[in-house]
Design a protein that fits this description.
This protein is mainly α. The chain has five helices and no strands.
Length: about 180
């Protein structure tokens, strides 16, 4: 039955994912109701449509045949509802498992991404602080270099004044020594 159900559902919608369809068809088979139900009706109906029968005629013919084995309209609808409920329950199970897998596989990466964002933001803040400190240091460097030049200039003036004074005094004493030697 699995192969024919796979064919029936995939022909009805060729875009169906084969792996998912196989899983869900197995679910239908495990939970197949006793006797002629929606699944057998669907197989009969599809077979009649493949014989180029219009949908309304194929559906009525399949139902007429199914009535001979005890299927009623109410039982057919209840059976279809049974499979819809199975699908709804399986959707819940799938979503729970998907969430668990996301939490397991992606959750750690999401946490790592949050940590990396926080780290990057911290680095950006540190860069801003360091840039501000660098600018302050550059300004201070310019001030210190200006002060150094100013002090060098003052020291050069002091040295020149000292050298000039010293040289004058040496010259004065030299002249006095010459006068002393000459006149005394």
């Amino acid at each position: 039955m699995q192969e024919s159900l796979m064919r029936i559902f995939s022909e009805a919608d060729p875009s169906l994912d084969e792996k998912s369809l196989q899983f869900l068809v197995r679910l239908f088979e495990k939970n197949d109701q006793q006797g002629f139900d929606y699944l057998e009706f669907k197989q009969s109906f599809t077979a009649l449509q493949q014989m180029n029968m219009d949908m309304a005629t194929a559906m009525k013919s399949a139902f007429t045949t199914a009535k001979t084995v005890g299927l009623t309209r109410e039982k057919l609808l209840a059976s279809a509802l049974h499979y819809q409920k199975l699908l709804a329950i399986e959707r819940e199970h799938f979503n729970e498992e998907l969430k668990r897998q996301l939490d397991k596989k992606v959750g750690a990466q999401i946490e790592e991404a949050k940590l990396l964002r926080k780290t990057a933001l911290s680095y950006e803040e540190q860069i801003v602080v360091l840039q501000r400190k660098m600018e302050e240091a550059k300004i201070k460097l310019v001030q210190v270099e200006a002060e150094v030049q100013e002090e060098k200039g003052k020291l050069a003036q002091t040295q020149a004044a000292f050298e000039s004074t010293l040289t004058s005094l040496v010259d004065l004493i030299d002249k006095d020594v010459q006068f002393i030697e000459q006149y005394i």
